[in-house]
Amino acid sequence: MTRLFTENVNVGYGDKTIVKDLHVEIPDQQITTIIGSNGCGKSTLLKAMTRIHSHQSGSIILDGESITQQNTKELARKLAILPQNPEGASGLTVGELVSYGRFPYQKGFGRLTKRDMEVIEWALDVTGTTEFKYQAVDSLSGGQRQRVWIAMSLAQETDMIFLDEPTTYLDMAHQLEVLELLQKLNQEEGRTIVMVLHDLNQAARFADYIVAMKDGEIVKAGSPEDVIQRDVLRDVFSIDADIGRDPRTDKPMCVTYNLWKGEQQNEEDSNHTASYASACS
């Protein structure tokens, strides 16, 4: 049984509909990545599924019940979201920020219990941020801050974690650091991870399931092998890509690509193939 899915969901801003009649299922205890060009509705879908942004029509179902009918604190115990540009950490230490993840469990005056403290320490430990506990969040590097925000999400003790472009503005080493951490959480903790990514090869390498979107609709959803295909990438991104295999993971990867030029591209490809065959004969 799929815990989270949408049925004929429409989401927009004002009179403009961004996500259109969309049906998507999120596989449990797997890593799902959502890919697509800028403005296609990736982040809007993520926000709708986590109730940050209301949907106009259709249904978003979690555990057999519409998310609009679920108590806010109860929902926050099931899913956590890390937005693209998290704010609100100015002046806080790492430990203080991570403690905010315990809000759904607090009662009365919101004092931290022994259990809260244990979970906070665990979240710091699993993300490798314990050494920063008493440092100001503002003093950390981009990769370190991102791990701290993930630690706060983990402190919510949710089965599902949503992340909107978690590798944005990070260098290659820190991108890999964050993605490997999420993969570890999925494999060792059984967390369901849903994230928006721009890098196709990162999406293919770390995802079990990929959702490719264009103009608010799903073009293709399935395994990396199903989605990282030349025709799919041509439709979604208007690129003509050469697809190979990652020598380390054996996952599909985009080796190189050009802008798609329609029928002109077909003619150029045919001429290139004929020239290559003639040279080899």
Brief description of this entry?
Helices cover 36% and strands 27% of the residues. The protein is an alpha/beta fold. Strand 7, helix 6 (172-189) and strand 8 form a beta-alpha-beta unit.
Would you kindly provide a written description of the structure presented here, covering whatever features stand out?
The protein has 281 residues and is an alpha/beta fold. The chain has 2 domains: 4-78 and 158-280, 3-Layer(aba) Sandwich (Rossmann fold); 86-157, no CATH class. The chain has 10 helices and 12 strands. It has helices at 42-49, 72-76, 94-99, 114-126, 142-155, 172-189, 200-206, 224-227, 230-237, 263-280; strands spanning 4-13, 16-26, 31-36, 57-62, 65-66, 79-82, 160-164, 192-196, 209-214, 217-222, 239-245, 252-259. Strand 7, helix 6 (172-189) and strand 8 form a beta-alpha-beta unit. Helix 4 packs antiparallel against helix 5 (142-155) and helix 5 (142-155) packs parallel to helix 6 (172-189). The chain is globular, with a radius of gyration of 21 Å. The termini are far apart. Residues 273-277 have low confidence and may be disordered.
Structural class comes to alpha/beta
CATH superfamily of the largest domain: P-loop containing nucleotide triphosphate hydrolases
Mass-distribution shape: globular
**Contiguous uncertain segments of 5+ residues:** 273-277
Protein topology:
Layout: E1 4-13, E2 16-26, E3 31-36, H1 42-49, E4 57-62, E5 65-66, H2 72-76, E6 79-82, H3 94-99, H4 114-126, H5 142-155, E7 160-164, H6 172-189, E8 192-196, H7 200-206, E9 209-214, E10 217-222, H8 224-227, H9 230-237, E11 239-245, E12 252-259, H10 263-280
Parallel strand pairs: 3-8, 3-9, 6-7, 7-8
Antiparallel strand pairs: 1-2, 1-4, 4-5, 9-10, 11-12
Helix pairs in contact: 4-5, 5-6
